[in-house]
């Protein structure tokens, strides 16, 4: 569609308050606030009905130079204040007042080269992929609140920080410090979702989110949310690559099927949920390899029957680490790493909806994560299934923060 044929109009979710000569405009969905001159207000008035840019320039030509109008139009469209034909008016990220750990906010733009790529933390507060307990939707807000108490200025203080409290020597955290110091660890805010929004709409937004960020050469790191979100997140990232590898830390294989589910699959009406994201991902021929770590428990009696999948059961992890089996992982394939917090033993991370006994301890789990990250090329990642309602004394949140810091530290600059 050429620019000329686009019709523009004012967005529907705005609050406009006159402030002296200017107007204060707040977008209800993305939270962005602008103080704008009379020109902007006039454009909003003209654009109550869909209008082409030609018509708009014509109508404003006696009061404003066309260049000024076009610049303002671009600015307003970027902020979602006006929309164009084909724009999805419901798709927004909302930045909190204070970013996670004080890191810079992410604004859409491509890095000049891949050496300048950014890591982008993204909250997706959606838990309805688990019909029994969807409180993992509260995790993005919870980790934002929790890190406010003692990690709020991690970014600014990165040079003086002593990370030994996170279970390793300071030299281990060099990469994390570099990400912080380079301003390339960023907060992309939370995806805006409505209560009871259709899951299919949420998944479409997640796919768009990771596709946009990865398509600009940056690395999305989603903070879920339930594990059903990993399927669209992988789909978005996979669009940018010929082939990708999935690395999954999880107690479950997430290839859950039963006879009833198969019946629905046969009719093309298979439900997507937090226990089958991998079955759906595997339908894509772009998925070249899947490594699953930490699998255990009575729910895993039917491991995926797919030659691309390799399972390292929980009890095999110590041997995997000792025998340097990590060499078997492909270092070149673009990798999506998904981390379900129920990977850890429930004594370590009780705050999750589907805990499974006999999982890896805190240190073993984090050692495995560091070892794997050291080997692979991460282009997207997530941390899922942290359920604050089931937590004990913020124990799981602490584990989640540690896991996130290790994840960032393990992604090569
Ligand atoms: Mn799981």
Short description:
With 413 residues, the chain is of the alpha/beta class. Helix content is 30%, strand content 19%. The protein contains 12 helices and 15 strands.
Give a description of the structure:
The protein has helices at residues 38-46, 53-60, 66-78, 139-150, 174-181, 199-215, 230-238, 259-266, 277-281, 317-322, 362-375, 395-410; strands spanning 7-10, 14-19, 22-27, 33-36, 51-52, 82-84, 93-94, 119-123, 185-191, 219-223, 244-249, 287-295, 309-313, 334-340, 377-384. It has two domains: 3-84, Outer Surface Protein A, domain 3 (Alpha-Beta Complex); 93-410, 3-Layer(aba) Sandwich (Arginase, Chain A), CATH 3.40.800. The longest helix has 17 residues, at 199-215. It contains twelve helices and 15 strands. The protein is globular and about 75 Å long. A hairpin with a 2-residue loop joins strand 2 (14-19) and strand 3. Helices cover 30% and strands 19% of the residues. Helix 6 (199-215) runs parallel beside helix 7 and helix 11 packs parallel to helix 12 (395-410). The protein has 413 residues and is of the alpha/beta class. A nine-stranded mixed beta sheet has the order 7-9-8-10-15-14-11-12-13, with helices on both faces. The chain has a three-stranded antiparallel beta sheet with strand order 5-1-6. The chain starts with 6 loop residues before the first strand and ends with a helix. The relative contact order is 0.12. Residues 250-252, 340, 342, 354, 385 line the site of manganese (II) ion.
